[in-house]
Amino acid sequence: MTRVAAVDCGTNSIRLLVADVVDGTLTDLSRRMEIVRLGEGVDRTGRLSPAAIARTRDALRAYGREIRELGAERVRMVATSATRDAANADEFTAMVVETLGVAPEVVSGDEEARLSFTGAVHGLPADALKPYLVVDIGGGSTEFVRGDGDGVAAAISVDIGCVRMTERHLAADPPTPAQVAAAEADITAAVDRALAAVDGRRAATLIGLAGSVTTVTGIALGLPRYDSARIHHAEIGYPAVAKVTADLLGMTRAQRLAVPTMHPGRADVIGAGALILRVVMERAEAATVIASEHDILDGIAWSIAG
């Protein structure tokens, strides 16, 4: 048995998984998520703000205590889109080393995509048809990966994400039709480029990862509260995704906060995340999407399992 700790620091959230690896399976001991919005303003300024770094430090302190208390033997922290884009990434790295005791790995978009794919395809339903297209909608970027259960055939990361698209286009509350149209045009261009790069329309099964997808899934299922067990591997059709997207983009932030499955830290960016998912389904001609609660965090854990 090996006990591992994985930390995924993205543009919007920072997450921790501590798990035991036994006989080719991961058994969770702790799985946590905090919204720290590390990438706040990066699309505009090119820098991580002092406030965002401080929020991330607070979350990492708590994660570090838990990692030590649970006795993880191996620790890996991956930092993704916001840190790749920031001119002052060295300040962030120094903070992480001081707080957590390990340096963050600022991975490429391709490596981020491959880790997401590894986490997503473990434990898929046996009837899920290959090849898969895994789409990981983050805060600053979205990863597209095509492959089957044996490996990755093609991967690309593009700079569309729920935080980036909200900051770039969706300023009003709720966003205006013109703002939504501008966001959709931006997203469509990036999605078309990504699908062409990975030959994504050849995929038989679309798998969606991360908080935008799981939140949309929970809303589409009509859940009274966020329930990861019901959301994981739920299959949602395009009409439901389109309706949820239209509803979210028509709401104020206060109205989105009242949605039962909504994490407070996602309420201001979920409209953009839902829009990305809807456009992906349209451009990939995917009738359904399978939501997965297993993603890059699980891929990081597998990468150090030995």
How would you summarize this macromolecular structure in one to three sentences?
By secondary structure, the chain is of the alpha/beta class. The chain has 13 helices and eleven strands.
Question: Mind explaining what this structure looks like?
Answer:
It is built from 13 helices and eleven strands. Helix 6 (162-169) packs antiparallel against helix 7, helix 8 crosses helix 10 (238-249) and helix 8 crosses helix 12 (270-284). It is of the alpha/beta class and 306 residues long. It has a six-stranded mixed sheet with strand order 8-7-6-9-11-10, with helices on both faces. It folds into two domains: 2-106, Nucleotidyltransferase, domain 5 (2-Layer Sandwich), CATH 3.30.420; 123-292, Nucleotidyltransferase, domain 5 (2-Layer Sandwich). The chain is 45% helix and 23% strand.
SSE layout and pairing:
Layout: E1 2-9, E2 13-22, E3 25-35, H1 42-45, H2 50-70, E4 74-79, H3 81-85, H4 89-100, E5 105-106, H5 109-121, E6 132-137, E7 142-148, E8 151-158, H6 162-169, H7 177-198, E9 205-209, H8 211-220, H9 228-231, E10 235-237, H10 238-249, H11 253-257, H12 270-284, E11 288-292, H13 296-303
Parallel strand pairs: 1-4, 4-5, 6-9, 9-11
Antiparallel strand pairs: 1-2, 2-3, 6-7, 7-8, 10-11
Helix pairs in contact: 2-4, 5-13, 6-7, 6-12, 7-12, 8-10, 8-12, 10-12
